[in-house]
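Box 3.1 A note on notation
Throughout this textbook, protein chains are presented in two layers. The first layer is the amino acid sequence; the second is a token string describing backbone geometry. Keep the layers aligned when reading.
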Amino acid sequence: MNIEGNESKKEQKNIAIVLAAGQGKRMGTEIQKQFLHICGKPVIYYSLKCFQESPNIDSIVLVTENDTMLYCRQEIVEKYGFDKVERIVPGGEERYHSVYEGLKACERCSYVFVHDGVRPFINEKIISQTLEAAKKYRACVTAVPAKDTIKISDDEGFIQQTPARSRVWVVQTPQVFAYELAHEAYARSMEMGLSGMTDDAMVVETVMKCPVRLVEGSYKNIKVTTPEDLEISEIFIKNGY
């Protein structure tokens, strides 16, 4: 479903920022996790393919390490024909620095999707639903209700609190925002020298005091972080996920 609201396609531009600058230390490999292969293709190929084929996405900004920019251009973008990738930019020291570099590279953007390149199982339903929510609320994140009971610990590793499972969500990406809101939130956070921002919603919540809407995603929208995640991903792809 192509969501355009009251704006024409010429007036509205939706950009996906795909992050591929992580080191992937938990994977235990020399190759960065976003470039490891699942069923013969790099992990990052799958999310780029989804955004490439989405009628709701006009262009893509790919954020990666300085020394992998040429590789991304030749071996991923050009090799697989991802012509929506208009910019490849170097990331920063932490994730939120990389997001800011991506935001600065966006031009004439209405809504921005921030997505981890190591989440290969995004789909068009998620893109459509988060865009619709972003138009209504200005800020939203993909998430799924927690399946397990969550415990909050104290500094010594003892249980301090057990939040009601019915109110606990596991946050995923994409996280989608009105572009001006996200850009201003990140610009202010950089000026303030904030640290410890683990996702984009946290920046918008903290800096702009803007409520962020939860949009239910998919339990298959996993983040490939460990060797076990690669095995699960192979199964998803072989089964047509």
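The chain has a mean pLDDT of 92. Helices lie at 43-53, 69-78, 95-105, 124-137, 179-192, 200-208, 227-238.
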